[in-house]
Specification:
N-terminal domain of TfIIb; five-stranded mixed beta sheet; seven-stranded mixed beta sheet; 7 helices; Rossmann fold; alpha/beta; 2 domains
Amino acid sequence: MGRSQDHEYLAPYTLLARYYDALLSYEDGYEVWIKALKKYTKGKKVLDLASGSALFSRAMEEEGYEVVASDLSKEMKEASKANFKGEYQIMDMSAFFLDRSFDIVTAVCDSVNYLDEKAFRSFLKCSYQVLEKGGYIFFDMHDLARLKEFKEPYIEEGHILDADYIWTIEVDETIGELYEHFSFYIKGKEYMEDHHQFVYPIAKVLKLMQEAGFKARSIDDFILNEKVLMIGVKE
């Protein structure tokens, strides 16, 4: 794979949005999330945070949910047009307000791991405010086992659509942080994105959820050694 000295750093999901579905989508779709949503929540009005290309928003809509999708990235909203025709808001999952209420707030595919503790608290507060009493917050997070999985750096190289790419994952176990780097090589130029995530002990997350006013529980084996599902009910 060729390398270029001409390079540019981009904000997360600026260019990755173009390749997201081809590079990172789940082969089995979102059946495990839909099954859990039906099992652990009630209601049909959903605010889907950090929707990305809106594949999960579409999956919920196909199951009869009334979905408002959202994301901070304008590029991801643009990419979502191939998947989802419903309402899609541009907003920060840790700083938002809508003048309507929902039965369920969702945030899947470890989206909340992008939030540091201050932003995570704000995400919980904002979600609580837009939920009906008895409504649900539904999100997944990295299992702590992910830190051990990537103790040795992960490197993937290949070609996707119109670009060569390199994708690397490294962790710092001592502080519970995960770093992803994407390089895309297009027409002799390298475009780079750095993604920074925080991996939290589940006991701490449960405590933060309870402090925000939720009756909280975790499904620790949701995707074994990969994702823990968190469910909160607005009391």
